[in-house]
Write a structure and sequence with these properties.
CATH topology: Lipocalin
Structural class: mainly beta
Largest sheet: 8 strands, antiparallel, barrel
Distance between the termini: 6 Å
CATH architecture: Beta Barrel
Number of strands: 11
Number of helices: 2
Length: 154
């Protein structure tokens, strides 16, 4: 008898809450994002991982949907976020680059450029605010999934 066999694959999953500021519309405002990303392939370095989540701009503002991708490089992650704000889509993109001379800062802080309609409209900085030792416990996990390919065994 032939039956489908589904092979499990570990996937890296990330859940991050980053806070900082955004310089936009002539003023510096509070900026925070809650992001979920999951590798779609077992080998995830240097490959964009889709992400989704929510952003807040301003202290008392509502949440705005975020999508985009996160690419993990050996020397630091690269973020490409699209914030679906009421005034239009804000594209926030930037990359951390780890440096030994400023390791704590470069591990936790990511400078971003902010564009709208292809034009630079500001900048931002997001950072991991919780204690650094909490990052692997709070943000990283391995999830298992079944392979979508139907392989057969007899």
């Amino acid at each position: 008898m032939t039956r489908p066999r589904f092979l499990p694959h570990p996937l890296l999953a990330l859940n991050e809450r980053l806070e900082g500021w955004i310089q936009w519309q002539g003023s510096r405002q509070f900026f925070a994002v809650d992001l979920d990303a999951c590798a779609t392939d077992t080998w995830f370095l240097d490959r964009p991982m889709p992400l989704s989540g929510y952003a807040r701009i301003g202290e008392d503002s509502e949440s705005w949907p975020v999508d985009g991708d996160l690419t993990l490089h050996i020397d630091g992650p690269e973020y490409r976020l699209r914030v679906h704000h009421e005034s239009g889509i804000l594209e926030c993109h930037g990359r951390k680059t780890y440096r030994l001379g400023a390791l704590r800062y470069t591990l936790t802080t990511c400078p971003l450029s902010v564009d709208r309609d292809g034009q630079r409209v500001g900048g931002a900085e997001l950072a991991w605010r919780a204690p650094l030792w909490r990052f692997p416990l709070d943000c990283l996990s391995l999830r298992w999934r079944s392979d979508t390919k139907n392989e057969t065994t007899s």
